[in-house]
Structures are given as structure tokens and as C-alpha cells.
Design brief:
By secondary structure, this protein is mainly beta. The protein has a single domain, classed as Hexapeptide repeat proteins (UDP N-Acetylglucosamine Acyltransferase, domain 1, 3 Solenoid), CATH 2.160.10.10. It is 9% helix and 35% strand. It has a 9-stranded mixed beta sheet. It has a 6-stranded parallel beta sheet with strand order 1-4-7-10-15-18, with no helix packed on it. The longest helix is centred in the N-terminal third of the chain and has 19 residues.
């Protein structure tokens, strides 16, 4: 019975994906599990072999007068209970792994007017948000208006508010780089608070975090 049930679940998912395919700007041979919320289908592009688990919210809002872009690259996996929100551009690269309860956005709520409840104030653009290819994003991470390089690790519960260079490990709130890959030694080496290696032979320069 379980085999039959699983067959019908897969069949239903494939049928549903075929029915909604034309709503997207682009949708490859990928899977989005029920239940989910998607707003702004026509601004969302999803590559091939992408897996998006249940209780996800993909949100692309045209609030700035320009078409927003929400891009998800091939072979990326997004786990449960996440939110990805774009008013200009959010791009997730190829072969990215995103943990549960992750929030990725290029915008935030305005709050400066203390006479108006924050929920009634406008949404404002922060900066384009880009997650590079082959990067791993841990559980409960928040990413707001930054560029994360390729082949990075962002530790669980981190809040990323500054750019992270390629081949880096970053943790904390706000997240900071604690390791980088040394192409000469082929090792992941610890760095100090300025992004410089503790090892005198390291070729690293200061990490650009802004």
C-alpha cells in the first residue's frame, strides 16, 4: 500500500508542477513540495533538478517600479519553512544547500516613523542578495542584502549583514568570517577578526566585508 500511495503522491506532484509551469518566468525539471506559498510567479526563475521542501514562501514583489528577479540555480535544495523575498533581485546559485527556517531577502520594513505601526510602513530595498554556487547555508540563518561568495559555509543561527568572500566559513550574529580556504596549502585556515590569517605564510588579504 505504501508503494501505491507514494506513486500517487509523485504522480500528483508531477501533474501539479506541469499545470503551474507556465505561471513562472522559468521552471525547469524541479520539485516544489506541498504546502507552499508563491507570490509573483512571473518574476521567479527556477533551474533544473531543484528541490524545494514544504512550507516555503517564495515572494517576488514589484514595489519599486521595476520587475523584481528571484532566481534559483540548478541542483539547489531548499529545506522546510523558509522564506525568500525579492523586490529587486535575489539570486541563489547552483548546487546550493539551504537549511530549515532560513530567511533570505533584499528588503526590510521601514520603521523610522514612530507614529505609524511598523507593519503599516513601506518595505524598503536594502541591496541585491546573491548566494554563490556550491554554498551551504545552515539552519535558522538570516541573510539580508548581501553577497555571499561561492563554496561558503554559513553556520546555523547566523545573521548575515555583510558580504562574505568566496571560500569562507562565517558564523555569528552579525556573521563574521572565521576560516578561509588557502589555495597554496589546500587547507581551511582560521582568520582573525579582520579576516587575516593567523598563519604568516597565508596569501590572504583583508576580507572586504562591506
Amino acid at each position: 500500500m505504501n508503494g501505491i500511495s507514494n506513486y500517487y503522491k509523485r504522480f500528483h506532484r508531477r501533474l501539479w508542477m506541469a499545470l503551474i509551469r507556465n505561471k513562472f518566468n522559468q521552471l525547469g525539471n524541479s520539485s516544489i513540495n506541498f504546502p507552499y506559498i508563491i507570490t509573483g510567479y512571473r518574476f521567479i526563475s527556477i533551474g533544473d533538478n531543484v528541490t524545494i521542501l514544504n512550507h516555503i514562501w517564495l515572494n517576488a514583489m514589484a514595489t519599486t517600479g521595476k520587475k523584481p528577479l528571484l532566481l534559483i540555480g540548478d541542483n539547489t535544495r531548499i529545506n522546510r519553512n523558509g522564506t525568500i523575498s525579492a523586490i529587486k533581485k535575489v539570486e541563489i546559485g547552483k548546487n546550493v544547500s539551504i537549511g530549515e527556517n532560513v530567511f533570505i531577502t533584499d528588503n526590510t520594513h521601514e520603521f523610522r516613523d514612530v507614529t505609524v505601526p511598523i507593519k503599516k510602513q513601506p518595505i524598503t530595498f536594502v541591496n541585491e542578495t546573491i548566494v554563490g554556487d556550491h554554498t551551504w547555508i545552515g539552519t535558522n540563518v538570516t541573510i539580508i542584502g548581501v553577497k555571499i561568495g561561492k563554496h561558503c559555509v554559513i553556520g546555523a543561527n547566523s545573521v548575515v549583514t555583510r558580504n562574505i568572500p568566496d571560500y569562507s566559513v562565517a558564523v555569528g550574529s552579525p556573521a563574521r568570517v572565521i576560516k578561509r580556504f588557502n589555495s597554496k596549502t589546500q587547507l581551511w585556515e582560521p582568520v582573525d577578526k579582520f579576516g587575516e590569517s593567523f598563519l604568516p605564510s597565508s596569501p590572504f588579504q583583508k576580507v572586504q566585508t562591506a
